[in-house]
Amino acid sequence: MNILVCDDDKEIVDAIEIYLKNEGHKIYKAYNGIEAIEAIEKNEIHLIIMDVMMPKMDGLRATTKIREENNIPVIMLSAKSEDTDKILGLNLGADDYITKPFNPLELIARVKSQLRRYTTLGSLETRNNVYKSGGLVIDDETKSVTVDGEQIHLTPVQYKILKFLTANAGRVFSIDEIYEKIWNETAFSAENTVTVHIRKIREKIEINPKEPKYLKVVWGVGYKVEKL
């Protein structure tokens, strides 16, 4: 797979390149957000590892720009560990977040997880490839989502969450259950990550996200897609 690593610290970029080349990936390098966007325009990139604090264009602005036209998975890197920074990155379209300094094995595991979701977008065993709830239609063959016939653009993680809940419409899943199903790992401080993605999905599929028709919260329990 082709992975773009973007960080203004060249030593970090070189170190990540060594880790991921050993896993068989091809690495492209960038040292600010502008270079990252240019690399994506010129090459087929399957995953981006993006630092937050960089000159010329930081990782948050670059991710926002990338998300305008592309759903490539983005893993954010930052020396900051506060939840507010994680939430901001996820709100802007990042799929995952790693705090520096990081364990190389953790980075590799998260890269594998994101690539697996990007290439398969989930592998729920179902009787067909179309999931519906009223005007919400997910075609897993074409990986498309429409609401009342209008095309909705989701990130890979958003797509998988919505597909999972829609395939099980009417059933309530806890935050931990959603996290473990989508991220394929034991939930740990999962609430912020899941709730941010849920909110972003609502903003895209609901006419009024504050009064959702499809993706609903069951207070004290979790979330569900209404069976319509």
Order of helices and strands: EHEHEHEHEHEEEEHHHEE
What structural category arises from helix and sheet content? alpha/beta
Corresponding CATH architecture of the largest domain: 3-Layer(aba) Sandwich
Q: Could you tell me the radius of gyration in angstroms?
A: 18 Å
Summarize the structure.
By secondary structure, the protein is of the alpha/beta class.
Describe this entry's structure for a reader.
Residues 122-127 have low confidence and may be disordered. The protein has helices spanning 10-21, 33-42, 59-67, 83-91, 104-120, 156-167, 175-183, 191-205; strands at residues 2-6, 26-30, 47-51, 74-78, 96-99, 130-133, 136-139, 144-147, 150-152, 215-218, 222-225. The strands form three sheets. Strands 2-1-3-4-5 form a five-stranded parallel β-sheet, with helices on both faces. A four-stranded antiparallel β-sheet has the order 6-7-8-9, covered by helices on one side. A two-stranded antiparallel ribbon has the order 10-11. The chain is built from eight helices and eleven strands. It folds into two domains: 2-120, Response regulator (Rossmann fold), CATH 3.40.50.2300; 130-225, Winged helix-like DNA-binding domain superfamily/Winged helix DNA-binding domain (Arc Repressor Mutant, subunit A, Orthogonal Bundle). The protein is of the alpha/beta class and 228 residues long. Helix 2 (33-42) runs parallel beside helix 3 and helix 7 crosses helix 8. The radius of gyration is 18 Å and the shape is globular. Helices cover 41% and strands 21% of the residues.
